[in-house]
Write a structure and sequence with these properties.
This protein is α/β, with parallel strands linked by helices. It has 14 helices and 11 strands. The strands form 3 sheets. A 7-stranded mixed sheet has the order 5-2-1-6-7-11-10, sandwiched between helices. α2 runs antiparallel to α3, α4 packs antiparallel against α5 and α12 packs across α13. The termini are far apart.
């Protein structure tokens, strides 16, 4: 309740004020206003940073709470609308997501590509999606990286790895020390490179990943005093492979785990890998497939990845000049699709043709 008596007394006291009193009052009032502005700015900055933090960890409710506080403070930006829209999108609250996205959906927006992609899913137009925008891939990797780190810690102290054993058989006599060069396209937690280095099979290792935290993690990996990775490049693996600025190096082993999970343009990638492989080198390619899928691929809305028809990938692999040495299938818990890893070698006769 407003205390009218206090207000009357305040105005009565003004009659007794001197000019110096007024100056002092105005100065204190300005100081209080400036202090409020500073606190308000800090509050906005704090809530924005906390919102991003929770968003990246997958704590979507907490992120929404922080972003809504910002809106109550009158903070407006396309970043905020996109982030809030993406939060609602991940909770399958598509209409709320649409409201946010449409506020900044124009070709001048820095989020145009991501919003256009999300709206295709919301509008049930997933057949029009040909790739997942890099910013969204990075966000998914951020959410998943804790799991990948736990998997790394789980396996580093064991020699039981099916793919590793198959690699040893294909590459030669397991009793001798190897000196192979490895290109790791999408190094993530660096587990396979670590196991190969631990088994003294590697000479030089180049790791490529678009996720900066993965690069930081792999940079710190070592076996005793020896680093697992000699060089690391912070770049999207698919873009690296098809880019015109190729590095002048050949590799005995190329790892492409999930290299084609976020795009339908797989032929360009699989063809380009040839420029990095040694004549007798091997290429590990993994992807998700659905045994009951008749189309070449479909888009998995929940995980935001492409699920392929196995036969289609095999055809493209052969067309791009690869011979399939071995296939390794792993069924995924509670999913109607599986993961397939192909161990490939260059088919030189087909390449010549």
């Amino acid at each position: 309740m407003i205390n009218l008596e206090k207000i009357r007394n305040f105005f009565k006291s003004l009659k007794l004020w001197k000019i110096s009193d007024f100056k002092k009052f105005i100065s204190e009032l300005k100081s209080k206003i400036n202090e409020f502005k500073i606190k308000s700015k800090n509050l906005k900055k704090t809530n924005y940073e906390l919102g991003i933090y929770h968003f990246n960890l997958g704590n979507i409710n907490d992120a929404i709470f922080r972003f809504k506080i910002l809106k109550k403070f009158g903070y407006q930006s396309e970043d905020l609308e996109y982030l809030l829209g993406r939060c609602y999108f991940e909770k399958n609250k598509f209409e709320k997501a649409r409201e946010c996205f449409e506020k900044c959906y124009n070709k001048k927006s820095k989020f145009f590509e991501e919003i256009d992609y999300c709206l295709k899913i919301i509008n049930d137009e997933v057949d029009k999606i040909k790739y997942v925008p890099l910013r969204i891939i990075e966000h998914k990797k951020t959410q998943q990286f804790k799991y990948y780190l736990s998997e790394f810690n789980k396996y580093i102290n064991t020699d039981e790895n099916v793919i590793l054993e198959e690699l040893k058989k294909i590459l030669g006599d397991i009793t001798k020390v190897f000196n192979f060069n490895l290109l790791d396209l999408g190094c993530s937690n660096g587990l396979l490179a670590y196991l190969l280095r631990k088994n003294q099979m590697l000479n030089f290792v180049l790791g490529i990943d678009s996720y900066s935290e993965a690069i930081k993690h792999c940079k710190n990996l070592s076996i005793g005093k020896q680093k697992v990775y000699n060089t690391l490049i912070n770049q999207d693996p698919g873009n690296f492979v098809v880019s015109k600025s190729k590095i002048d190096a050949k590799f005995d082993i190329i790892i492409g785990l999930n290299l084609i999970s976020y795009t339908t343009e797989i032929e360009a990638i699989l063809s380009s890998v040839h420029s990095y492989i040694e004549n007798r080198g091997i290429f590990l390619l993994s992807f998700y497939f659905d045994a009951n899928q008749r189309k070449n691929y479909y888009f998995n809305n929940r995980d935001e990845e492409f699920i392929f028809n196995k036969t289609y990938v095999q055809k493209v692999v052969r067309k791009c000049g690869w011979h399939i040495e071995k296939e390794d299938r792993v069924d995924i818990n509670k999913q109607n699709y599986s993961q397939m890893t192909l161990i490939l070698k260059p088919n030189h006769e087909l390449i010549k043709e």
